[in-house]
Amino acid sequence: MTDGPLGGRPFADDGSEPPVVRDKRRIDPQTGRVRDTGGSDAAASEHPQPQVSGEMANETEVELGLEDKASGPTLDVDPDADPAGPAVDLAVERLADLQRLQAEYVNYRRRVERDRDVARDLAVASILESLLPVMDDLHLARQHGDLESGPFASVADKIEAILSRAGLERFGEVGEAFDPAVHEALMHVQAELAAGTEVTTVVQVLQPGYRAGERVLRAARVAVADPQDPSAATE
Question: CA-to-CA distance for 205 and 233, rounded, in angstroms?
Fold first, then answer.
């Protein structure tokens, strides 16, 4: 290897230029210190960066979206579009769903309350119906004069008062017009009715009837008589 002309880089014996090796390490392996960055500046000077003016830099930042990074995501809105259209449609749909659910809940609550009242009335009616034989015995005892005085008369009065507060009512009296809804005719007899009577009438109560509210627990068992035909009586 020989020196090049004018003390330049050496050449190989065949006249070719040997490869050039540049040490670009920032830390000197011999001293352990940071090397001077003059070489980097020199390299940077060899490849200068294009100069951008202030206005061009601002325009570039705006194009890249770098001017305002803290503003957060933005929503592009078409100024010609109706912004309230989809929102109003969705609100109307949700309002209709809410009204339908509210109506269903009101109907359900009313149905539950009605069913609860019906169940309570059925339970009370069942208990009162099971006590009708006791009421029949007390009624017969009063007719025969067995409950005019004494401790049993007091007990009977209390039982009748309690059942009356629970809604139990006795019906069926002589002289009432016969009503198949509340009367059960066991006998059809010939009897003289009061003057002016034009309908079939109860002439004898064989067993009184009982009702709880509007519910008939047992129809009154009676004997009835028809009004007399004036023409037949004249003959």
Answer: 27
What is the per-residue DSSP string for 19-83?
A: P------SB-TTT-PBPPTHHHHHHHHHSPPPP--HHHHHHHHHHHT-S-STT-------TTS-T
Task: Write out pLDDT tens, residues 39-78.
Answer: 544 444 444 444 544 554 444 444 444 444 444 445 454 5
Query: Is 185 exposed, middle or buried, given 0-12, 13-18 or 19+ CB atoms closer than 10 A?
Result: middle
For the chain, what percent of residues have pLDDT higher than 90?
A: 37
Q: Which amino acid is at 31?
A: T
Is the full-model pTM beyond 0.70? Answer: no
* Alpha carbons 107 and 113: distance in angstroms, whole number: 10
pLDDT of residue 163 exceeding 90: yes
> Which residue in 126, 112, 116, 113 sits closest to 215, CA to CA?
126
Q: Which residues pair with 177 in a beta bridge?
A: 201
Backbone angles phi, psi at 229, to 5 degrees: -80, 120
Q: 3-state DSSP: the chain helix, strand, coil percent, rounded to 5?
A: 45, 15, 40
Q: Is 191 left (phi over 0), alpha (psi -120 to 50) or beta?
A: beta
Structural tokens at position 87: 């929102």
What is the rounded distance in angstroms from the CA atom of residue 66 to the CA atom of residue 4? 53
